[in-house]
Amino acid sequence: MSFFIKRVRGTKDVLPPNDKIWSWVESVMKESAAFYGFLNVRTPVIEFTELFKLSSGETSDVVQKEMYTFDDKSGRSISLRPEFTAGVLRAILEDLNNQILPLKLMYFGPCFRYEKPQSGRYREFFQFGIEIFGGNSVNSDIELLFLANYIFKKLGLKNVKLEINAIGCKECHNDYRNLVLDFFNKNLNNLCSVCRARLEKNPLRIFDCKEESCQKICQNAPVTVMNICKECNRDFEEIKNTLTTCGIEYKVNPYIVRGLDYYTKFVFEFIVATQTGNLTVCGGGRYDGLSKFMGGPDLCATGFAIGVERIIEIIKTQKIEISETNSRDLYIACLISEAKIKVTKIISKLREFGIKADINLFEGNVKSQIQFANKAAYKYFLAFGNEEIKNNSCKIKNMSNGEIFEIVSSDDFGDNFIKTCIETVFIYNSVGPGMSS
After folding, report:
1. Which of 110, 57, 52, 59 is nearest to 85 (CA)?
2. Which residue has the higher pLDDT, 134 or 203?
3. Among 10, 126, 344, 418, which is least packed by CB within 10 angstroms?
């Protein structure tokens, strides 16, 4: 079937049954973060463009090439959020007097970047992320690493590797910038045109370049981890020692700088090895100077973001079994109009007890109703017609094994009937909230 209007390139639709994996991944991430004491935050999809120019940096790829930016009817420059951190921090600064620091926050939602669509990467993409504001201790960095590791274990991901790097504080950056500036100037002719433009404004961005010629040059460049101050080195050593003591494997990757200008001191990535190469599924670090740079107080901050589409792609590739998040318990096919009110009451009562029950929404014989219930993956089926009314009883069929439960009603399908159904069918077969095995 062909339609004139189709979805925008780089976007996607999530329809049943694919929504099951999305719901499961979101619930695992949120429940894991809540277990670690994080609270939800929601921010607007649109922000003033200046916010992202300030936070991400004028030389970042996000600002230069990837943002969806437009003027509103008042002539103000507005952008769809390309990432969450800037908007979350802006929200906190606007409401800082009402917040208790340190503050642990989590978010889940869409971001937008205009880049070439590819596997696991879209122009509208979803992120789950964590932010800690006001945590000046290295414990904040460690908390992030442990939470991310916990989430990936809960999801059942295999071949997940942690890579970390120390990129130094503001003072370290000034000395390091001179080192790399001198190095890249000596290799200027071999840099791509984009990196030559980056050289004066922000030479660290060259480490993000995907051009093979630039990557070869970067392999011989001075690295941040060898050019940091004593305080930054002390914190980095504490992070490494904690990871080692707690049995979390890691690798120091001196070329991780992250793609946004606001990162300082400590950065990290979680990477999953696939048949087509390594995929970065989580990235983050510390950005203590961002609040002050945006006009706020000197507020310590650290966080990470997880690409949801990539996680789902890996779950499918690794054939990880997911927990059922929206299973359907009982389908009642009401075959006669005289019984509709009675069946509706039965369903209403069952729902009050946490049983996911539905009535048929289309007319049809028993065979067609059973076919639908089977395709829609209902666990149990009940046909309600003249026979049920006459005998004051019904038969509930287990769709997986064909077992039949006959329930006799002593109160015209009232509360006693509902109680008997729950006791003999649903509790017996572990269905319903608080009853699952």
Report:
1. 52
2. 134
3. 344
